[in-house]
Every structure is written in structure tokens, then in C-alpha cells.
Design brief:
Length: 234
């Protein structure tokens, strides 16, 4: 972690609005290369150097603001950012949750919901409509594994496979894979064989994977809609 990132975290802690300036500057300041170029050259699984910087800034933001204000700020960063900045928001959601900033005591609103979870689910759904594989990979991280409903999550996994993303990018796959996902994957394989197209090992893995003993209940009910549909620009 560079001094620039440390300074950025401190700046956001003192003045959360600073994240609007720091987020777009991350690539220039720390680089855009893969964190682990040898085994993850595209940064699908472990992200890029600027992804990591933005993750830290999201964690700092969530710590500095009440949940509703942090959620509003993340929506703005996602809405006006480029794909790299959107990746940072998505990866930051998982990092902030791991750090205890989402779902923590005092974070929820009086009605029992968590504004950060609600906002995060909608941002994940939006990202799953995109055609950028690194954005889709970021959307299928640990935050989605914990909060996306099963229907939307299945379609996100199938989209990742369709885009030739490695299944290793899908957090919680072994816990959430079920009979319906296997059926959908088998249908995809049949379509590709009929069209004389390649069937990948990951497609076969999905179609033959056993269902878990008990699937976790989703913590949020997402809006209807197929996340694999066309991306709508803001």
C-alpha cells in the first residue's frame, strides 16, 4: 500500500467528499496492472492495483459516514464513474463488509434495512448487465454471494461463464450452486453443442456440480429482472 493510499484514507476520514477526487486519480497514482499478474493477468479474481486503492477508499468512506449517506455517495461514484471506478465500488462493498462497516450495529435504518446493502444490491445488478468482463467479475464477489437473491445470482454466474470468465471469480460458488443452476448450465451446453461451439470445462463443472446440503437464505430481496440483459447507460 503506497503513501498516496494512506494519505487518501486519512483525507476521506477527515472529509468524506474527498473521495470524489481520489477515486478517478487511483489509476494514475498507483497503476492499473493486475495485483497477481502471474496467475491472474487480467485481474479478474484478485483485481488491479487501482482496484485495491479504491477498495480502501470505500472502506474509509463507510467508516466515516452514516450508512444512508455512504450509500448515497457510493451510488454517485458508480453512476458517474468509468468501468474501473465502478469496479472499485463493487470490490469496496465486499471489503467494507469484511471490515464490519456494513451490517454493523447502528448501521441499519429504523425500519430494519441497511441502506448500504440495498444500494449495493442494486449496483451489483446494474454491473451484471454490463459487457465488461472485469466489471462482471467484480460484481460476483463476496458481497453478491451474501446478498444477491438466488435467481439473480444464478444468471450472474451463467453470464460469467458465457463471457469465458473463470469460475474462480464467483465468490461462494460451492455454497450457493444448486440443481437449478446445473439445469441452466446443461441447457447452455446443449445450445452450444447444437451450434458447434466450444463447451468449456467450467460449463461442464456447473452442469455436473452437486447441490449443497442447504442453500443460505438471501439477506435481501432484489428487484425482478434478468441481470444478463443489455446494459443501460446512465
Amino acid at each position: 500500500m503506497t503513501d498516496w493510499i494512506h494519505e487518501g484514507e486519512a483525507a476521506i476520514a477527515a472529509d468524506p467528499a474527498r473521495i470524489a477526487d481520489l477515486f478517478p486519480a487511483a489509476g494514475r497514482e498507483v497503476g492499473r496492472g493486475a495485483v497477481r499478474p502471474d496467475d491472474d493477468p487480467q485481474g479478474y479474481r484478485h483485481g488491479t492495483l487501482d482496484d485495491l486503492a479504491r477498495e480502501r477508499f470505500v472502506v474509509a468512506l463507510v467508516r466515516a459516514l452514516p450508512a444512508d449517506r455512504a450509500a448515497a455517495e457510493l451510488r454517485e461514484l458508480h453512476r458517474y464513474g468509468d468501468d474501473a471506478e465502478r469496479r472499485g465500488v463493487l470490490r469496496g462493498l465486499g471489503a467494507a463488509e469484511e471490515a464490519g462497516g456494513i451490517g454493523a450495529v447502528g448501521a441499519s435504518d429504523p425500519t430494519g434495512g441497511d441502506p448500504l446493502v440495498d444500494a449495493g444490491v442494486n449496483l451489483v445488478l446494474d454491473a451484471l448487465r454490463a459487457n465488461d468482463p472485469r466489471l462482471v467479475a467484480a460484481a460476483l464477489g463476496p458481497f453478491a454471494a451474501r446478498h444477491l437473491d438466488q435467481h439473480a445470482w444464478r444468471h450472474g454466474v451463467l453470464k460469467a461463464v458465457f463471457m469465458d470468465l473463470p469460475l474462480d471469480v464467483v465468490a461462494g460458488l460451492d455454497d450457493r450452486a444448486d440443481v437449478e443452476l446445473a439445469r441452466m448450465a446443461a441447457g447452455l451446453i446443449a445450445e452450444r453443442r447444437a451450434a458447434c461451439r466450444t463447451v468449456t470445462d467450467d460449463m461442464t463443472r456447473l452442469a455436473t456440480a452437486p447441490a449443497p446440503a442447504a442453500a443460505p437464505a438471501p439477506t435481501d430481496v432484489t428487484a425482478a429482472g434478468d441481470p444478463a440483459g443489455p446494459h443501460q447507460e446512465d
